[in-house]
């Protein structure tokens, strides 16, 4: 193939490609863009007689944690291959693209900047993420239902059956003292059942959370934890408002509940420290929470003991109300669960 044919093909590819292709100089000025790029990118206040700067369109690159920033900008490196960037379109939307930036003419400081839309890939990833999330939620729900079913069958059902059988025998007892003794035993059994059912109810949804708020619900839960597991919860609750949004209160309660349960099951500790503080650091009011133990700990990133759904659930709950949760742990040095939720 001769050079003329190659140039013809390259020109045809440049003009007809559905990929956005831009040539940019060392100052970030767009030397030339193909028709697809010109039709897609925002041309607000664009003087056709002047160079247009790439920063007019670019909104920054994707960084860790979902941030969009301009640190380590592609304009200032010799070559940055395959990265995610956000560009403003003619419709005023900020759209993610898969980008490639390569210097092709070092002598004249000209680079080629290619962009392919990422929206379809993101939609596919979101669908897959939702599927996995739904599967994990269903798995967690079924696991919890099995546990409750087992508790009801092994605890409540068996105990009720025993009491029922004992009560059926009352009519055959002639001795008053013996009858009184049997009735007292049955009464004790029913009292234990009442406490057992009440504990299950508290685990599912404490009435104090709806009626009295997060502070009262947590204090009641901490007393229950001490009674059930023999673990002392040393709590500091520094919140000014009596009530928060019900969804925020539920998320806070469930995160703290799950973190304490994890400590009770895996950390092998006698004390767990809980701190809840309402603050405003300039970004708006939020509640900071911290649950810490000095137990066995684990190496973050390793496969967690159990299903791992507890840690996953805490993160998903916090995210649902715009909050964050992090876990800091090391073997032999305990575990710290912390984060904040805007209020």
TrEMBL record:
It comes from the Bacteria. The modification Phosphohistidine is found at residue 153. Pfam families: HATPase_c (PF02518), HisKA_3 (PF07730). Keywords: 4Fe-4S, ATP-binding, Cytoplasm, Iron, Iron-sulfur, Kinase, Metal-binding, Nucleotide-binding, Phosphoprotein, Transferase, Two-component regulatory system. [4Fe-4S] cluster binds at residues 55, 58, 70, 73. The keyword Iron-sulfur applies. It is found in: Cytoplasm. Autophosphorylated. It comes from Salinicoccus roseus. SUPFAM superfamilies: ATPase domain of HSP90 chaperone/DNA topoisomerase II/histidine kinase. Residues 155-343 form the Histidine kinase domain. Member of the two-component regulatory system NreB/NreC involved in the control of dissimilatory nitrate/nitrite reduction in response to oxygen. NreB functions as a direct oxygen sensor histidine kinase which is autophosphorylated, in the absence of oxygen, probably at the conserved histidine residue, and transfers its phosphate group probably to a conserved aspartate residue of NreC. NreB/NreC activates the expression of the nitrate (narGHJI) and nitrite (nir) reductase operons, as well as the putative nitrate transporter gene narT. PANTHER family: NITRATE/NITRITE SENSOR PROTEIN NARX-RELATED (PTHR24421), NITRATE_NITRITE SENSOR PROTEIN NARQ (PTHR24421:SF10). One of its GO terms (cellular component) is membrane. Binds 1 [4Fe-4S] cluster. Transmembrane segments: none annotated. GO terms for molecular function: 4 iron, 4 sulfur cluster binding; ATP binding; iron ion binding; phosphorelay sensor kinase activity; protein dimerization activity. Its EC number is 2.7.13.3. It catalyses: ATP + protein L-histidine = ADP + protein N-phospho-L-histidine. InterPro entries: HATPase_C_sf, HATPase_dom, His_kinase_dom, Sensor_HK_TwoCompSys, Sig_transdc_His_kin-like_C, Sig_transdc_His_kin_sub3_dim/P, Sig_transdc_His_kinase_NreB. It is an enzyme of class 2 (transferase). This is Sensor histidine kinase. Its cofactor is [4Fe-4S] cluster.
